[in-house]
Write a structure and sequence with these properties.
With 642 residues, this protein is mainly alpha-helical. It has 23 helices and 7 strands. Helix 2 packs across helix 3 and helix 15 crosses helix 16.
Length: 642
């Protein structure tokens, strides 16, 4: 009985860091995940409902992303219904899975417990986006890319002297599968990041293994990659959706986003005032201040140890002390890492709970001041860390063929892929940077963990960093293009029903939503087409109405020019029975024109002109007017029978 018992104990010891990492992330999500609702949520829930009712993407409704995400949600709705609360719960599991995959990458280079804390910090930063939903398609792209990288890194082991490489080949095939899933969620991010990660793994394999092994690994990776893509393309071909798929996903998406430019973010990063030199110097100064403080504490510890020995140190002892001071000690420090990281993770949980139930000011204070100063440096640290780290690891790999260098090449390639992939459509963001932040904190803690006390300094900075973002999330859980939900802590929750059951929103907001819903139900019949402009498809879902002209959303960078033109034309010739229109400030339109269209007019302006023409001609009449619903003014119009 001792064998299985020992095996289970070993498994438990390996699993504990994963559980400890997931705990603060799950707690954080649970405390705010149903504490807000924005009327612009529910885009892909409507896409999923259409699929469940027999509609085929691209053929029966427009979609400028690859189709896997709404298909996933359609399956989810089949089991859990159309309610958004169930999706919020799903988001907890997705976000925790991102943290665990990140931990699995970090533990290739750092102590598992140090990695657990650093991964939790990185994911808290990842969640800080102004329109973050744990179940959103961007989170699935990130998760699939992380899982692919985890598998590729695990496949980089020495070739066994006897036997086959079947395990490594299976890992490569599964990695290819996850790269394909990322591509099938979002074509730009998935293609760019997946290509960089996949190619880097092949380059690394070429440096480590013989040609036959490289070819086998490449074939396994390609096989896993093309299998799900072939299945989706076959489905689209059989259903007659292949041609509109090409039109929407490649032509329409490129025009809506102003074309695919993977270097678009670099102009803002390097050229926008005060410039990259200023940001780089500021980031280096802050990092240097932290390193000097850690070094001084380490010197004090070394000095105290030397004085306690009461004898003069010889040259060998001095060299050993210097190696420890610069973080190159190879002394086992698992006990210290467990001690520091378990305390840090426990304190993180306490701070998250305290901020959720407190009312801390965002002004500089003991809890978040340091973290707030670090925020601007995160971009500089991460981007340069990916690029320089990849270059250094590649040189070491070519010189020494070391497994650690090979693994870091693939991990750094993931960071580069996230930067360029996300930068193709959204610039630099938390989605690009969270990996670099996690690596940085893991490095700072792990390299000086033998001293114990110096390692508490980066822990304190990381905790302050987290508190800064947690406090911001509870004050503004959703803020996207002038749409904002109420603060989590102060919102009085209405008794919401239907698809919104379980979500917290102010009673006035819920009453406004119900009023719009009732106006739609009263003035249209089930299954009839209505038009919701530009970003509130939740009203299709709430009323079981069809999107007018297959336009689920008409948002500026999410709608093809062709669809916008079709909608504007059909509005004039065959207006629907009900039109729901949110007033969007002109500054939002001009911002999108500047970001994506070289300041040329958006086709949505023609939609607005068509609605204005219907109003002026008396063909539609306003039947409801709502003000300040998440900051939006919304009008409901009824078609007038001539």
């Amino acid at each position: 009985m001792s064998g299985p018992s020992l095996a289970w104990r070993a498994f438990g010891a390996r699993a504990l860091p994963y559980l400890a990492c997931a705990l603060p992330i799950a707690l954080y999500q649970a405390l705010y995940v149903n504490g807000f609702y924005a009327v612009t949520e529910g885009w892909f829930s409507e896409y999923a409902r259409l699929i469940r009712t027999g509609a085929v993407p691209y053929r029966d409704f427009s979609l400028i992303l690859t189709p896997l995400y709404p298909m996933q949600l359609a399956v989810f709705q089949t089991f859990f219904g159309e309610g958004l609360f169930a999706l919020h719960i799903l988001g907890i599991f997705v976000t925790c899975a991102i943290a665990l995959a990140l931990l699995d990458l970090l533990r290739n280079f750092f102590n598992p417990w140090t990695s657990a804390f650093a991964a939790a910090v990185g994911v808290v930063y990842y969640e800080s986006g102004v329109a973050f939903f744990g179940y959103d398609f961007t989170q699935f792209v990130t998760l699939y890319l992380l899982l692919a990288t985890v598998l590729l890194v695990r496949s980089l082991r020495p070739v066994p002297a006897t036997g086959s490489e079947s395990k490594a080949l299976w890992l490569c095939a599964c990695a290819g599968l996850f790269l394909a899933l990322a591509l099938l969620i979002k074509q730009s991010n998935g293609a760019i990041a997946g290509l960089i990660v996949g190619l880097s793994s092949i380059v690394v394999a070429a440096a480590m293994y013989r040609p036959r092994a490289v070819l086998l690994r490449t074939a396994a990776l390609a096989g896993g990659f093309f299998l799900p893509i072939a299945a989706v393309l076959l489905y689209l071909t059989v259903t007659g959706a292949f041609a509109p798929f090409l039109a929407d996903v490649f032509v329409g998406a490129a025009r809506a986003k102003g074309g695919l430019n993977v270097f678009a973010w670099t102009g803002h990063y390097y050229l926008d005032p005060p410039g990259i030199v200023f940001h780089a110097l500021t980031a280096l100064m802050r990092l240097a201040e932290l390193l000097v403080a850690m070094l001084l504490v380490a010197v004090a510890v070394e000095g105290a140890a030397a004085l306690s020995q009461r004898r003069r140190l010889n040259r060998a002892q001095l060299r050993a002390a210097l190696r420890r001071l610069v973080g190159f000690s190879h002394a086992p420090a698992s006990g210290q890492a467990l001690f520091i990281s378990s305390i840090a993770l426990a304190v993180l949980c306490v701070l998250i709970f305290a901020v959720a139930h407190g009312d801390y000011s965002m002004d500089c204070n003991a809890l978040n001041c340091i973290g707030g100063m670090v925020v601007e440096s995160a971009y500089v640290w991460s981007v340069n860390f990916y690029l320089i780290g990849f270059a250094v690891a590649l040189v070491l790999l070519l010189r020494s063929r070391r497994q650690g260098a090979a693994r870091f090449c693939v991990v750094a390639a993931l960071g580069i892929g996230l930067t360029f992939g996300n930068g193709a459509s959204a610039g630099l963001s938390e989605i690009s940077m969270f990996l670099g932040i996690a690596i940085l904190f893991a490095f700072l803690i792990d390299m000086w963990v033998t001293y114990l006390f110096p390692a508490f300094l980066p822990v304190a900075v990381a905790l302050s960093f987290c508190v800064f973002f947690v406090e911001a999330k509870f004050k503004a859980p959703y803020a996207w293009w002038q749409v904002a939900s109420s603060p989590v802590r102060t919102t009085e929750c209405a008794d919401a029903g239907g698809a919104l059951r379980g979500l917290c929103m102010p009673p006035d907001d819920y009453a406004s939503i119900v009023g719009i819903e009732n106006a739609i139900l009263k003035n249209s019949s089930a299954g009839e087409e209505i038009y919701v402009y530009p970003h509130m498809p939740i009203f299709y879902l709430l009323t079981s109405r069809r999107p007018f002209d297959n336009a689920v959303v008409s948002w500026f960078d999410f709608t093809s020019d062709q669809l916008a033109d079709d909608v504007s034309r059909r509005l004039r010739t065959s207006p629907p029975s009900v039109i729901i229109m949110a007033e969007i400030p002109n500054s939002v339109l001009t911002a999108h024109e500047h970001l994506f269209r070289n300041d040329k007019p958006l086709p949505q302006r023609r939609i607005l002109a068509s609605i204005a023409a219907l109003k002026s001609s008396g063909l539609i009449r306003r039947i409801d007017h709502v003000e300040n619903l998440n900051g939006l003014t919304i009008d409901v119009y009824k078609r007038v029978t001539q």
